[in-house]
């Protein structure tokens, strides 16, 4: 053993990272299992890429955010960086596999961003993403609508019934609208990213940014206002179809080719979303712009109760602008060091995505592999679900991590504790597909063994008595019973040969017993 | 869209890494699911740690191999490195959580080593590990034997029946034996690592290294030879118990405290392994030393057919020493650039581990958290299993990735292709727990839709006919039927309202049909 260099060192996780253990990792796994089941229902296949990519692969894909990329130290050899999202690795994979013209892939993995962490909000430097993307040719909105349908199916599978809204817009409508309003072509993206802030700040602030910081003509800004305050759908004062009709009747807008294409296809999208039972969940929102450069068509973002900062939530919506600005100032100041204990406040979107038709072509010339997809922010889904569980909500897909059986033994002073016999029983149960534990003391006191069985939450104890063992008998006891008259509380003596059958029967029985529900039986 | 910097760049994975996709990732997931099911049966809980750790955490833990650690570039802030294994992060986590005195954890994740890759052998720079470790107090061999039992249960779950051997030794026996032979204390570890090479080279070479390179007295080396050539158990000429008896009768060895403790506990281990149905899989092998510094008791390593380099496999065992040396020289030369197409040859061990009682104490003073565990080399398990499947072997746990249903439609020239109706049917099937796909063309030719259904391997087609649709009827067709008289080959017309029931019934039926087995139905 070399000299000890470890002592006295700082013992912690790297900034913005966490260990997942205990009930947390159990809930995380349950959430991921629900999501991947939905993905597989749509025929999506898993892809798993390396945690790092050649630096060239990531270069120039994330605009200003590139500064948040983690680089691997140059130790000789290739220059590498940790992945920043799962989209660019997918595009790189498609470009490398030119024979693949069409693919449905999902990917569940952690991504890395050297951002300022805000733990309570679920903003971490290492965090989970869960992506589904469809690549290949498609008639207008056929693929896009199916991706939106997976969003609805995921949130229904997570039992967030009604507690989410899919904000949808289209880059073509947005860009066409900017053209119609008179935004110069070279200002389109910067004005677009100003518009995207409307979920975080009031119009006055956004207008100020456009005019004062970005040098946009005030009149153009006012024309933009007319559009970007339009919403229709879930939670809005008009339906998505009504908003669509307003746009279809807007002659100036319909005279713009881009806008017209976007609006026409939006009509198709609506009919598909209706068939896919997804229409009720959407809000057509002309202020949605999304930050990333590479989107070329439909874009969307999923918000849930508490996704918006406090100053913009329903309860405070009608406050005066003064009050809003006050709150906003405070909110911005707190942004990077949020220590709020309510993880459902201001977490931002819980899923987002859109169509990106040109990304694969940036890796391989003449590669025409149009794509559309969505990414779920799993850490946020986790934080919100956990907080709802703590508030008493039940989710049927949350599984127990307790073993089925705890195997124990007791006897007199001359008793060896039957370690080998306990192992043999546990092995028999394992081979029958059951989970079983026993204490790692050769001879343990019975109360200590019961304590451990309770700690691990086993619903059944299999108890070896020194005397009964000799007759080939063993006792099956149901843990946590309160009914004194139930013989299973004391334990029922059975033949060792019937062990597996009896344990399985008892497990099946108690899953219907109301008074052992508290044991959280699988 | 910013200027395109991507084109013309090298399009590849970082050296020593791979993408997992298609059937490969399906098989990988099936293997991981088998392993984690075994782990959970023993009551182990998942732990997930960040991909990187503070550099201090890894420092001084891996001896010479530390040079293989990937560092993260210093971009300001903490100094970080990618994890090298899952054991040190577990020890760090235990040290950070001082309230946890006892824990069974498993961890499935990728680890990172800047080693020379040998793809065909499954030696990668990014590779999967699958670890189970028990931490906390235990009576002698109670925990150790349970970990060995998980190894047997994993390989049985993977259906490698009989095709693996668990080589076991104990550091205390090894160190005591070195003392008895007269190895100076400061040479123990270096002589130990020379002994560990006996699975790669013949004794003559190892002796040469001991005497010429490491300056050991030749007589001492000869005394060592007597011990390290002793084996007993699976595939050996004597049983493990017989070897144990030889050691128990070795007065010199039993006079050494360390050796005596190890040998006595080995007797206990054997009785436990018998109870755990694990005894037949082991070979007690005094030449097993394992490279890592931190082991303090039992150590083990799992080999499979082809684990040993060719010159040491059974078929060549009886060759003359000359021939052996010749082959050995060749084998060493090839070692770092093995391009063999047979992944079962010379992959090394497929799992390894042991007891390490002092590692947690290196992170936190006075932390007494003894541990014992095993790590499965998943990439190697994958390569070997895949190669066996290619050779025609069947594994019952390998699942299909095909959807249950392909939804299609056909009609006359005036038919719109029923995109919305296909979506509605797919959504109904999804909500009933089934997987279903449809083509992303609004109006597709029927032969094209059949081709896609075949490509994705759907066992059932749901077919919408333009005329039948009007009557609320839909056809269910079983794909891949050869029996012309079976009406399901042509398709059976049913009421739309009965769709889910009929599809589920048909799926259940065809899982028993021999002539659609080739469709690889789930």
UniProtKB/TrEMBL annotation, chains A, B:
<keyword id="KW-0436">Ligase</keyword>
<protein>
    <submittedName>
        <fullName>Cytoplasmic and mitochondrial histidine tRNA synthetase</fullName>
        <ecNumber>6.1.1.21</ecNumber>
    </submittedName>
</protein>
<keyword id="KW-0030">Aminoacyl-tRNA synthetase</keyword>
